[in-house]
Structures are given as structure tokens and as C-alpha cells.
């Protein structure tokens, strides 16, 4: 690798230009889509779809022995969400309740 300062300055300038361009690209590509009715539809319905997929994926491997703590945690998550309408609170509360129940009340040891 040459010790030329011009070479190093050019490498830094090219790296900076590529980094800047890659950071601007999503904004430039999404600007025309902001008025799209499809994007508006997806922004409304996609979060619900993702949560349904995550819930089904999580509940598909529930065995009989773990059904009660999982069911109680799902009920608590639903209750928290209906009460506060806060996804972070719902997920953290349901996870905490499931961990507490599974490791204390329903532990098998």
C-alpha cells in the first residue's frame, strides 16, 4: 500500500461519498411513494399482521405442560394492551408474567 497522502485522501473521500449516498438513497427512493395508497394501506395493516404472525409462531409449539402459563401470559398481554394501548408495555408485561409463572408457579423441579 503506498504511503502517498493523495491516495489516502482519495480513499477517505470516496468512502465518505459512498457512505453519504447510501444513507440518502432510502429517502430519495421513498419520496415518490409517500402519496401511494398501497403504502398507506400497508402502514395501517402491517403492524397487526406482524403481531399475528409472531403470536402464531410463538404458540405453535406449546405443549400441554406449558399451556397454562402461556395462556395466562397471552391473556395478560391482551389485557395490558386493551387497557393501555401500548405495545411495549404489553410485550414486556406478558413476557415478564410468562417468565415469572414458568419459573416459579409452574416449574417442574
List keywords for this structure.
109 residues, mainly alpha, 4 helices, 0% strand, elongated
Description:
The protein is mostly helical. It has 4 helices and no strands. The longest helix is centred in the N-terminal third of the chain and has 26 residues, at 5-30. It is elongated.
Which structural class should the secondary elements be placed in? mainly alpha
Q: Tally the beta strands.
A: 0
SSE string:
HHHH
Low-confidence regions: none
The percent of residues in helical segments reads over 70%
Shape: elongated
State which percent range the strand residues make up: under 5%
- Helical segment count: 4
Arithmetic mean pLDDT: 88
Main β-sheet description:
none
- Indicate the radius of gyration in whole angstroms: 24 Å
End-to-end C-alpha gap: 62 Å
In terms of topology, how is this protein built?
Elements: H1 5-30, H2 37-59, H3 67-84, H4 87-105
Helix pairs in contact: 3-4
Describe what is shown at a glance.
This protein has 109 residues and is mostly helical. 79% of the residues lie in helices and 0% in strands. It has 4 helices and no strands.
